[in-house]
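To whoever picks this up:

The parser on our side crashed when reading a file containing two proteins. I've narrowed it down to the boundary between the first structure block and the second sequence. Both blocks are reproduced below exactly, byte for byte. First block:
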Amino acid sequence: MEENKNRRPHARRNVEKSASNDAVAKKAADSSDAGAKPAETVFEVVDFSNDNAKTRLTEAQPKAELKTPVRQKKEKENKSSGALGGIIKALLYMTLVLVLSIGIAYTIIEVANDVFAFVKSDEAVQVEIPEKADVNDIADILGDADVIKYPGLFKLYAKISNEDSVDDEGNSVFIPGTYMVSPMLNYMQLLSAFKKQYTREVVWVTFPEGTTVDDMITILTEEYGISTREDFVKTINEYDFDFDFLEGLDELDGRYYRLEGYLFPDTYQFYTDSSAVTVVYRMLQNFETKLKYVGGGKLDERLNELGMTLDEVVTLASIIEKEVKYPVDYDQVSSVFYNRLADKANFPRLESDATTVYAIQMETGVRPAELGAAELAFDSPYNTRSSRGLPPGAITNPGYEALYCAFYPAKTDYYYFVADKTGYNLYATTLAAHNRNKAQVQSEAGN
């Protein structure tokens, strides 16, 4: 009896389970008839002897149909708060960068202003420099006086600039004493303010038209103490100056000075410690400028018309310069020499006394006081009394008038000229007329 009682409840649960399963199956069939996907029915078989065991029916649903509205709301809230946080972080970062940039820029400006003294007080400050002071002492003194703001930077600047505190003999380069200095001085000026000041002496040197290279060297070296004769001679004869008009003058070719005729006579301002190269370069630059004025942009065309090279015209200009005292005679004397060069059969020699004087002076070192038969016959390619045509090079440095008239001579039929006692020239076409002019000059000189 007790055994049957114990089994009936189990049978009832089984019947109830079966009825429930029938209901589920019927619902699934109805869903299938309606065209919907039948739900999957899962039976769990349990041991009926276990009172706690149950048969579970689970209806599986697709994952896409699962909804978690609470979770989505949290995700949206998280995204909103995350975006706001990102903006705040970006603003903080930008603010930090801006603050740092301003700070760095300010520091750079302050340092630069201290080093270069862009905007500082112009009120002079008195400082005392002791004996045997070095750069570190100078920096501390200037810092204490508020002349500079960064003494350490001043010391570093002096070190980078190779500013020594002592000279070659071990003595301090800073002269002790009381100084008035302005904060407007930059670091370099402050480093120099307490040293022995070296001032370059400036001199004005004037070379008259017709000054020879030899005389120029004497004036520069002996009168003004600029460089040495040896340096000038070497520079004039050997230095490679980059000027187009010097092409072809690489060698002396029988010349006494390679650049004779090209060192333009003028008034110049030189430092007494200038090098020979600097001085000669300045004078060549001046010659180049004057040559452009003379040529007017058609220098080569004019040389072709004359049938001469530039060096030949410069050489002729130097002879004209020495033979003329007054500007009115430049183009007339030029015409005489051009007429002789054009008629070499009848006038093989230029017969310029100036060339004879130059030849003798350069060979002997002595300028002849007068020209006698021996002097006129002096054997030298520069002596146009004894040599044919033009000399090897210029005999002096011509000025602008002589240079211009060498390019543009007057149109005359003169072949002779002689200077009277006033310095003006008398011209003649024939030898007979020339002899009469000479007689007249001698007569006037005797009176």
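<<boundary where parser fails>>
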Amino acid sequence: MSDTKKSPQGEWSSHFAFILAATGSAVGLGNIWKFPYITGENGGGAFVLVYLLCVALVGLPIMMAETLMGRRGRHNPVTTMEALTAEAKADEHWHYLGWMGIIAGMLILSYYSVIAGWATAYVFKAFSGSFFDADAHAIKQLFADFIASPIQLIFWHTAFMLATMSIVKRGISHGLEKSLRFLMPCLFVLLILLVGYAMTTPGYFQGLHFLFNADFSKLSGNSILTALGQAFFSLGIGMGAVMVYGAYLPKKISITETVVIVSIADTVVALLAGIIIFPIVFTNGLEPNSGPGLIFETLPIAFGSMIGGWLFGILFFVMLVVAALSSSVALIEPTVTWLIETRGFSREKACLWSGLVTWLVGFASIFSFNSWSEFKVFGLTLFELLDYATANLMLPIGGFAIAIFAGWVMVRDHSEQELDLPNPQSYQIWELLIKYLAPAAVFFVFLDVVGVL
């Protein structure tokens, strides 16, 4: 199909444009705090090595599969799965894989936008000097008061969603591509600036030791599963974004080369975030294992007391917003594309309705931090429920299904044509990984996250 067809939405103008888009889709808030945090918890450098192996052996094959499926179908995830299913003469129920990606992307963005709104608000708090000379109690109270106010959270959630949809409504070349040509270089410039600052801190080498020291005694079976899960989720597989971005990929561009570059860039961002955060943490005598509080309750203490903290606090939270925005445009694009291609909406109307629904669903997360904090389902707040249902259930199931479809259902000649690997042996290696290793690995991650292992 993709030999002659192009996506109705257009194509990326270049190899570089697709790399920026796919990297932006993968890089998000999780790279800035989660990867450094779980690395410290699971053996430092030893964990990093395991993570890199998981990216190479599991993440890469599945991301290649989702990209080639998108380019083969050339449409939104649902229409693409319908076309590929018909082409393979397979069970028509496979099209639900496309639906799951679209729904997962919207649900993730509904609460992702709320957290990104926090980061946006903290840019202004840093700018106004709210962290200056504040002790740990004052910073924690600042954060507690902030999330206790539905009005503030709604305002920042709305601001972030408006920024996201204003980019998406401009389309591929004028919206997504143009914004990512600015956002991704900006993100890397901010990272390098903050790494430069981290190198001047007394805790720099202690931070590097914490992040990279290979203590294999701390590795466990659970550590390996954690590394596998992080590799899988950090690449953004199973939420429709990779598939729809693949639909915009010109035939002449190598899927394999591009996916390798994207995975390397995604990992580099995570490592640079650790190099930034941990020296600041150790220099100021803070706890490195504070989880999400590391960003909003711990680092502001450091920014409020260190030399140049006002400037670097602003830069840090701007970096968070940039990373979040580059991911958010990818999360909503599959829904927008589906509305355009199957319901005849204009891009502006599709953005309006998809953005409005996502914005409204975000209220569940907002109120779960204050007015509805006592309301729980299966012991989880609505925010925690959305997070668990998407990250721990929908994405692993989606990734598993992608591996099975690409490896066992899709016509072999078609996947071979799309990958266009340099020799038969390379394709056979990918086929081995996508048929056996990748689905088995994702299956075990799924069992782990639902508590079976």
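After patching the parser it read the second block fine. The chain is about 75% helix and 0% strand. The chain has a mean pLDDT of 88.
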